[in-house]
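Inputs:
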Amino acid sequence: MQAKLDKSDCMFLISDEKLNQFQQMIDELDLFTLVLPFVEESYQRSIWILDIWYSISNEEINRISNPENTMIYPYRNSILGIIKTLPIKRYIQLALYENERLAFLCAIYIYNELDDFISKKMAIKEEVKENFDALKKYSNKSLRPFFDSKYIEYENYPKKLAMLQNTVVNELHEIHKKYEIPLSWTFEKAIDDASKVYEAVFGLINDWGGRVP
Amino acid sequence: MIISNQIEHLKNLYKDLKFLEVIQFGTITLPITLQEKRYDDALICYQYLASAYYENGSYENFHVVMTEYEKLCLTYGKDENKMYFYYLYSLLQVIVRDFDAAVEATKKSIKYAHFLKYHDLIVVNYYNIAAQLVHKKELEKARIGMSLAKFYKNNICESNITIVRGYIGALYYFATMGNNEEFQEVKQVFLKLIKDRQTFYDAKISFAEAILTLNLGQLEESVIFFEYAYLRFKEQQNIMFLINIEEYINNFNLGDKFQYTKELREIIKNSHRKPLDINNVKSVLSDLFEDDTSTLSIKYPNVISKELIVQHVEHALQNNETLYCFHWCFITDEIEELFGKLFVEQLLFTLFETVYHFIFKHNAEVNVLSKNEGEAFIRGISESEFFELLMELEEKLQSKVVHSKMGILEVPIHFGFIHSNQLPEKQASYEQLTAHADASLYYAKSHGQLYIYN
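Outputs:
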């Protein structure tokens, strides 16, 4: 998993300290990251996981969104929006606020399961799949330079890219509407799997997390 | 039909840990598969042969097979082949004692195994990585590896007996950690599984037991285990493990107690062992395995991997060198429709050769991103020289037209670039440079221009 990340690509305004903590975990817990598919390794995948990690391990009131990035990365923004609505068992949620390592594992499994689920649904219609694959081609690098003001004399913003993102985001909303329940099961399964792996290595989650009877 | 049957036979021999027979039959099947150009089957043969040679301790044969296996895997390997290749490659690295490379290769094998859901190999690899990490003294990571191995093992409904391949790693881990209880537990399961089978594992088990007792401070017992392991390895002519025993004997000053000290030294001295030249099998770099780029990377030595290019660029930036990051892209969709895929591949090859030829007049390094795209970093080139190069490239590339019934077609070409000085000093990095060059390429493409210049 790529550890060299630029925090300005994150969907939240985060401190250097938080980013360092995340990068350190990529190194310390790298044996857990091996479940991520080899072929899909990319810069933006690491940023995705950073975003999910940050959003599940911090209460909403403490998170500040990076407004610029909601425009640059509308697809990731929408997925994070969906994740926010999905329920997490209370004792796990409490543990996630306390325990960064558990949150890190959950973020990896959530990314993996959701990406797999959404990719399969996107592949149903040939035309949607084409757009989805085209967007994936941009995942190796930061998209911020595409929105650099120096290109204004050519275009106000990268229209082709923005339209592509827009199409995929619309399809994502369709998928969300149509498969709301399976999506939430997938999410629950991801957290269950991550918790099981965590408990197998580091001990029971209720050791510190305030499991609710 | 004949080959399929032979492969099936090999598979079952291997599953039953009959490694000597795997070698006997494998050496018959392999040439036939190669002769008939059935490379999928040949890859399976290599995999079983390499594994069998390794398990039997015939390391030189193992090494020879790995060299050939790699070449074929590079060209025809699918994910499954790569998974086994990396698993075996990590074992090879352990033999030559490069534990960093071993760990990296094991990780790659685990990634493929997770992706393909090969639970047995996930477990074996996690056991092995625990052993490799404990050797590197990375104890916490090793502990995680071991816990994950156990976790995945408990989750397998049905496992093959071939899972015992991982138990040597587990034993080594517990022996080094001095954990007698867990060691004995694994050993019992291990012995039960290999019961009545003629394998070479007993020597390795004794060797691990010798390390365990040594770490528990029981020197007398340890020497007895080392002696038993010595006699068995001697029988097997397993020089590598004999060398390991000698190392332990020397490091722990057991020379007086160990009764075969002189004999052992003689055997090693007389073995005329040529050190395995690991460089023959060297391309553990992931991008060499990417389908699109492998052919080019082999043919053109200055095309280097992404990992290397990142290192070189970061190094240059640290030394305050300035450089241009240059991306190119050839758009061939239309030509592919009219002329077909193979034609386009050949055309792209010619175009790439032109880029290659001109760009290496300067101090440049190239990483091929796909058949249509690539990136180059050019050092110590002035702005005017750079634009001269662009003009040269434009002229040569645009002369590579194709002729169709409807007339002449030009291949649309686009460039994107950025100079490291254009970024704020702290932001200049490989990632930033390529992201900016890519953005500039994007605008050139969407405006149908060769390049855009700010």
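Remarks. Confidence is low (pLDDT under 50) at residues 280-292 of chain B. Residues 286-446 of chain B form a domain with the Alpha-Beta Plaits fold (CATH 3.30.70.270).
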